[in-house]
Amino acid sequence: MRPAVIILVAALAGAAGVPDPHPAQGLADLFLDYVEVRYPQVDRQGDVLYVSIHRQRLLLIRGGRVVRSMPVSTAWRGPDCEADSHGTPLGLHRVARKIGEDVPEGGILRGRRFTGRIASPGTTVKEDLVTTRILWLEGAEPGLNRGPGVDSFSRAIYIHGTPQRARIGTPASEGCIRLSDQDVIRLFADVAEGTPVIILDN
Asked: Could you identify which of 45, 70, 117, 165 might form a hypothetical disulfide with 183, taking C-beta atoms 3.0 to 4.6 angstroms apart as the criterion?
């Protein structure tokens, strides 16, 4: 499978919790035009995953068309690239590692290893559990998300599963991008290591 392109878009116009007045395909078209100008090295004809922080929504775009839409939960503190900020980082990234292919749905990972424990679906535990699958992101822009003090890989910024279903659709993470366990399984199967990731705040 060829690498996909993940576009994580922060703070798109509109407010969290407010119905999106823009059709998903229209948003995708606008973003692909933006990426052509800002990140010309990104293959817009590949698979593209687009996440809006304000809309808390992930779109899988294939061949320029939206083929899947998933709700997400991003950082409750908003976007921030600095170490220890607990914010979701900005800029160009790539999927450095995929972890957890054989972990059962709801399986709890610590230190990127399966603990043998399964989280209860819908748990309200306050801990930011990492479950089911991990896509570990690596920054590609020195000084922004790569290097001392801002390194996304060192910060362990993931796209990962969560058992906290009630919090999907609202900013609640400690910097990562959360998906439901079912959706992260699907996403894990759809993208490859090396997949470009763009996180924007516009």
From this structure: 70
